């Protein structure tokens, strides 16, 4: 009889232990190891796997493009009848060729400007035909934008250089002189003084 009571007591105790462990396992966020009477190996509850947070990537910076500008701010003067050429250059921007044009005013008579000349430049060339000072606006454009610059050119006169003459003996005739062109900075030169002395000496000789 005593053995029956002992078995009942141990069975009741085992049931209480199992019930207590089951209640603890059912609590949220609880991870425990449960040992069953028929199996001595511990069993661990597997946690739910978490998704790793991706590492943000740094974007590659975009290269900065310098603004398009016209570097030339003045042009040389020219002379009537003399060949003229001057370059207008730009910098910055992106894309070639750069296209040039005159959008306001006008070039001196006899001069023209190319739509492009080289990678970042153009040329104004020709032969001026009359005295004048002109003001004009040059424009250049490419894939990034447009730039403008106001410029001016003065065309000065061309004076006579030394004259080559074949005068009539005894006097100097202008209609027999052949003028040679030169810059307006030069001065007018007359016949050589030695030639004048020879003509004077010949005019004093008695006629036969």
Task: Walk me through what this model shows.
There is one protein chain. This protein is of the alpha+beta class. Helix content is 18%, strand content 30%. Among the domains are: 69-156, Immunoglobulin-like, CATH 2.60.40; 164-203, no CATH class. It is rod-shaped, with a radius of gyration of 53 Å. Mean pLDDT is 74; it is low at 161-191.
Please render the helix and strand layout as text.
Blueprint: H1 2-26, E1 33-36, E2 39-44, E3 69-70, E4 78-79, E5 84-91, E6 99-105, E7 111-113, E8 121-126, E9 132-141, E10 146-156, E11 164-165, E12 177-178, H2 193-204
Parallel strand pairs: 4-10
Antiparallel strand pairs: 1-2, 3-5, 5-8, 6-9, 7-8, 9-10, 11-12
Keywords:
208 residues; alpha+beta; Immunoglobulin-like; 4-stranded antiparallel sheet; 4-stranded mixed sheet; 30% strand
Structure at a glance:
Among the domains are: 69-156, Sandwich (Immunoglobulin-like), CATH 2.60.40; 164-203, no CATH class. The protein has helices at 2-26, 193-204; strands spanning 33-36, 39-44, 69-70, 78-79, 84-91, 99-105, 111-113, 121-126, 132-141, 146-156, 164-165, 177-178.
- State the CATH superfamily name of the domain at 69-156: Immunoglobulins
Strand order of the largest sheet: 3-5-8-7
CATH class descriptor of the domain at 69-156 = Mainly Beta
CATH fold field value of the domain at 69-156: Immunoglobulin-like
Class of secondary structure makeup: alpha+beta
CATH architecture of the domain at 69-156: Sandwich
- What composes the largest sheet? 4 strands, antiparallel
Helix content: 10-25%
């Amino acid at each position: 009889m005593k053995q029956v009571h002992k078995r009942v007591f141990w069975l009741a105790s085992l049931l209480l232990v199992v019930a207590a462990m089951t209640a603890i396992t059912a609590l949220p966020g609880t991870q425990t190891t449960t040992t069953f009477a028929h199996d001595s190996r511990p069993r661990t509850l597997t946690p739910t796997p978490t998704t790793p947070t991706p590492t943000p990537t740094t974007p590659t910076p975009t290269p900065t493009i310098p603004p398009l500008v016209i570097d030339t701010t003045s042009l040389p003067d020219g002379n009537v009848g003399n060949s003229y050429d001057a370059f207008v250059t730009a910098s910055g921007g992106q894309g070639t060729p750069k296209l040039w044009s005159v959008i306001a005013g006008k070039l001196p008579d006899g001069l023209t400007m190319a739509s492009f000349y080289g990678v970042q430049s153009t040329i104004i060339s020709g032969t001026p035909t009359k005295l004048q000072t002109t003001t004009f606006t040059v424009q250049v454009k490419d894939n990034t934008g447009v730039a403008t610059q106001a410029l001016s050119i003065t065309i000065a006169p061309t004076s006579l250089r030394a004259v080559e003459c074949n005068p009539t003996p005894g006097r100097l005739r202008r209609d027999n002189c052949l003028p040679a062109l030169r810059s307006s900075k030069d001065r007018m030169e007359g016949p050589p003084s030695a030639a004048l002395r020879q003509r004077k000496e010949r005019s004093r000789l008695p006629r036969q």
